[in-house]
């Protein structure tokens, strides 16, 4: 199994990666005494940044909802087969993306409510975690949406290019996976 497949199957990896990134940043700050970029701006500017970030992350949640709507309305042969073969995984992935967006927004708002002059509670690191986590979830969203759209596109191309109804190929999913696995 390839690394991308393991990553796709384990959404908790985004939490681990975000904790690792923020932990590494904290270590750099503690060891070097510099690099704490959120302390370079005032508390008012940080709260403006938190508000803007909440809006951006919420917009990503909206995009996820649109992608889910597209996914549920498209009904090609290949996509039906994928839905039949992987119903739990797909539902779990989409749900995880939406929940991740909600979590990131909640954490940003939490940091927003805690932040004060000189940030004595270190709320900026909650914000930093939320942003890294949201970026990782956005990458996961783009990857999943791209995979679904590739399957949908294959169905649409096949339907429009053939005059006759194409023969059903029960092994197309395995063949597609082999092609995907053999990509450089």
Low-confidence stretches: none
Give the overall pLDDT as a whole number.
Answer: 81
Total beta-strand segments: 0
Give the termini separation: 15 Å
What structural class is derived from the secondary structure elements? Answer: mainly alpha
- In angstroms, what is the radius of gyration? 21 Å
Number of helices: 7
How do the SSEs run, as a string of H and E? HHHHHHH
Oligomeric assembly: single chain
For the biggest sheet, the summary is: none
Beta-strand content:
under 5%
Helix content: over 70%
Shape: elongated
Please tell me about this protein's structure.
There is one protein chain. Helices cover 79% and strands 0% of the residues. The chain has seven helices and no strands. The protein has helices at 3-9, 12-32, 43-73, 77-85, 87-114, 123-161, 172-181. Helix 3 (43-73) packs antiparallel against helix 5, helix 3 (43-73) runs parallel beside helix 6 (123-161) and helix 5 (87-114) runs antiparallel to helix 6 (123-161). It is elongated and about 65 Å long.
In short:
This protein is mostly helical.
Keywords summarizing the entry:
79% helix; 7 helices; 184 residues; single chain; mainly alpha
Q: In terms of topology, how is this protein built?
A:
Blueprint: H1 3-9, H2 12-32, H3 43-73, H4 77-85, H5 87-114, H6 123-161, H7 172-181
């Amino acid at each position: 199994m390839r690394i991308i497949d393991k990553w796709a199957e384990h959404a908790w990896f985004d939490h681990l990666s975000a904790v690792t990134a923020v932990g590494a940043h904290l270590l750099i700050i503690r060891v070097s005494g510099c690099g704490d970029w959120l302390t370079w701006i005032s508390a008012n500017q940080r709260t403006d940044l938190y508000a803007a970030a909440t809006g951006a992350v919420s917009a990503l949640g909206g995009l996820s909802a649109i992608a889910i709507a597209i996914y549920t309305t498209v009904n090609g042969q290949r996509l039906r087969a994928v839905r039949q073969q992987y119903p739990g995984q797909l539902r779990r992935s989409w749900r995880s993306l939406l929940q991740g967006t909600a979590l990131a927004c909640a954490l940003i708002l939490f940091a927003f409510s805690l932040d004060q002059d000189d940030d004595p509670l270190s709320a900026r690191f909650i914000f930093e975690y939320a942003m890294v986590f949201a970026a990782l979830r956005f990458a996961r969203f783009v990857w999943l949406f791209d995979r679904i759209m590739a399957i949908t596109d294959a169905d649409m191309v096949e339907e429009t290019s053939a005059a006759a109804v194409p023969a059903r190929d029960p092994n197309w999913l395995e063949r597609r996976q082999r092609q995907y696995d053999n990509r450089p």
